[in-house]
Amino acid sequence: MTTAPPDPMIGRLIDGRYQVRSRIARGGMATVYLATDLRLERQVAIKIMHGHLADDVVFKERFVQEARSAARLAHPNVVNVFDQGQDSDMAYLVMEYLPGVTLRDLLKDYGKLTTEQTVDVMDAVLGGLAAAHKAGIVHRDLKPENVLLADDGRIKISDFGLARAVSANTATGQALLGTIAYLSPELLTRGMADARSDIYAAGIMMYEMLVGAQPYVGDQPMAIAFQHANDPMPTPSDANPGIPEQLDDLVLWATAKEPDERPSDAREMLERLRTAEIEIVSAKPSATLTQRTMVLPPDTFDADLDQAQTQVLEARRRTDPVKTIAPDDATSATTVYGSAVAAPGGPTPPQGPKDKLARKASSRRKRGFWIFALVLVVAVALGGSAWYFGAGPGSMTTIPDVAGQQPDAAVATLTALGLEATPADQTSVTVPAGTVIGTDPASGAGVKNGSAVSVLVSIGPANIAVPQLAGLASADATAALEAAGFTSGDVKQQFNGDVEAGVVIAALGTAGNALGPDTPDGTQYPEQQPIALVVSAGSLPDVVGQTADEAKATLSGVGLVGVDGSQDFNDDIPEGQVYEAIYTTDPVVPGDSVTLNVSRGPAPVAVPDVLGQTWDKAKQTLIDAGFSLDYNFGADLAPGLVRVTGTNPSPGTMVPKGSTLTVSFV
User: Fold this and answer.
1) Is residue 33 part of a domain?
2) In terms of residue numbers, what domain contains 609?
3) What was the pLDDT predicted at 260?
4) Which of 47, 71, 96 delimits the end of a domain?
5) 118 & 240 share domain
6) Are 245 and 298 in the same domain?
7) Is residue 377 a part of any domain in this protein?
8) Between the CA atoms of 10, 14, 17 and 21, what dihedral angle is there, to the nearest 10 degrees?
9) How far lies 192's CA from each of 140, 169, 185, 572, 610, in Å?
10) Looking at residue 394, what is its pLDDT?
11) CA 546/CA 562 separation, integer angstroms
12) SS3 sequence, 434-478?
């Protein structure tokens, strides 16, 4: 059985800041990894574009667009984007890490969701989508795979890779993007999308959660696309009878074929969802039976609807007081969800969102005069707006890329475009001090004329505290300095008789200066900069008493080089053995040379002339000269009277110190 090759990204340090830990998911455009932000010490999800797409300008622009689109949103139901950049030829996007599952995973495990679960998920999805629509962003790829369900209960929308501004009318212009099962008819037929296209995808997704299957299926994508464009949308309760009528109506409203018959944006659909939730919760078990006839108090009617035969009652009917009347009152109306049912014999009220829009249009036609006046007001407003946003104070300017420039040049460039540019210091481990890192807002963003723009100028890496490294084992010290935000530099060995081998003696900066809490000038050091460790190689070996060859072998075993020195007489070391090892460097490090001086044995001395001296005096002289004595001195002889008659060797002969002399007497 073959195993997949290891992912080369695992363990890689991206842009000197993000340490890749493991792979989370892989898509058609990028792979998502779990990483650690070493600067802020937090887990993040880092999305890295596939290498074969790095040279594709369209894909790269779409990848950057995702960062810009998501970064414009600050909402609890939208995945936060922290950073975006380029490391060599690799484009990456840093996002909030949410441990959990996707909505697609949940549907695979459970098939379908309960009414309460569906409402909870849709409330969060529409909340995040409403924030996007308010910011002028259309998601264009809403589907269960892009809805994240965190372990702590948070629900967030992700993957704005296909998002575009509403003002651009979001024409595809190229191959159709998105997932075919959730694309709106207008996007499939005309290639155009706006906020209502996201509403259509939300409606399809809501149907899938309630029923456990997609409304349109087929063997080929074109067959599914044809159904979206032409087949009527099935009602969820036809497949799951337990679904409340309120959610049926909401799904059908969101998935209307004509965009004008859908909610205008996610905010409108969210409000209707919350209204439906209240109605579902407050409904009694008998709510599906024929209800009693009721009339509403006069203050619940709008003035514009006083002449209408039928009135549609929205949220007010749940809170306004009602009065029950006799069943035979032919002028009363029976209230049901989303409309009012006329009394028997009366006209049938309109049903569904399309009829609701038609009814509103009819009411507007009755007020034609006011519409004409409104058109004039709008025309004037549009003219004023055109001037304001085209040439006036509201006109937009795109911020240029000034990264890498000198601060003065960058400020001058932005000032010439009508922007108020101000330098602002920012630390950076990659951009040299005194060079522009970028701007805030970032380059490519559109801002109004006269807007304030910060020119971010690098002041180099930030100085951070150096941990205590001396006294730690080499591996532990390396881990400690990397955890503190530095990089591991050279490891230098040094012989030290007071520190155990393998233990750090000192930590050094790039200038050779000592670092650590106990060094006055080295308590802080720039982040991500290398720190060299000086590690003990143990004590120097003792080679005195060894032969020259033995001493050289011993020194070579610890990385030192023994060289021949002088050969001298030595009274303590036998001939041929090293009597002295001279180390010429301090401190001594592996590779240094050691001079070996070898003994020639004891130095020769002349035999003293003690002839004619008394034995006791001669004996002391010869012993003091370092000789051993061989003599036959009888017990009956007096040392102070007997005199020495000769020595062997004779006086004046040069012999090694310690030699034995034979002494003769009178």
Assistant:
1) yes
2) 604-665
3) 92
4) 96
5) yes
6) no
7) no
8) -10
9) 10, 7, 9, 102, 128
10) 57
11) 12
12) CCEEEEECCCCCEEECCCEEEEEEECCCCEEECCCCCCCEHHHHH
What's the pLDDT tens digit per position in 546-566?
A: 999 999 999 999 999 999 999
- Whether the per-residue pLDDT at 293 is higher than 90: the answer is no
In what order do the strands lie in the sheet containing 294-295?
Answer: 323-324, 294-295, 333-336, 339-342
Please check whether residue 484 lies inside any domain of the structure: yes
Note the pLDDT tens digit of each residue in 591-621. Answer: 999 999 999 888 888 889 988 888 889 889 9
Mean pLDDT of the chain: 80
Q: How much of the chain, in percent, has pLDDT values that exceed 90?
A: 41
- Does the pLDDT value for residue 297 go beyond 60? no
Return the CATH number at 89. Answer: 3.30.200.20
Q: Supply the CATH number for residue 113's domain.
A: 1.10.510.10
Phi-psi region of 52 (alpha: psi -120 to 50; beta: other; left: phi over 0): alpha
Is residue 202 predicted with pLDDT exceeding 50?
yes
CATH number at residue 578: 3.30.10
623, 580 contact by CB (below 8 A): no
Q: Is the pLDDT at 475 greater than 80, yes or no?
A: yes
What total number of domains does the chain contain? 6
* Location of structure tokens 């049903």: 351
Q: Are residues 161 and 262 both part of a single domain?
A: yes
The answer to whether residues 342 and 275 belong to one domain is no
Decide if 159 is inside a domain. Answer: yes
Distance CA 139, CA 133 (A): 8
How would you classify the pairing of strands 504-508 and 654-656?
unpaired
- CA-CA distance, 379 to 163, in Å (whole number)? 31
Identify whether residues 257 and 116 lie together within a single domain. yes
pLDDT at 649 over 80: yes
Distance from first CA to last CA of the chain, Å, rounded? Answer: 104
- Does 54 lie in the same domain as 194? no
Q: Are 59 and 177 in contact (CB under 8 A)?
A: no
Residue 391 has pLDDT above 70, yes or no: no
Q: What is the pLDDT of residue 85?
A: 86
What are the b/e assignments for 140-149, b being 16+ CB within 10 Å? bbbbbbbbbb
What's the CATH code of the domain at 661?
3.30.10.20
- Residues 277 and 337 both lie in one domain: no
Residues 160, 111: one domain?
yes
State the pTM of this model: 0.44
Radius of gyration of the chain (CA): 47
Give catalytic residues, as residue numbers: 141
More confidently predicted of 173 and 132: 132
**CA-based angle 88:93:99, to the nearest 5?**
135
What is the pLDDT at residue 238? 94
> Considering 282, 302, 331, which residue would you say is the last residue of a domain?
282
What is the dihedral sign for C-alpha 643, 645, 647, 651?
positive
Count of other CB atoms within 10 angstroms of residue 345: 6
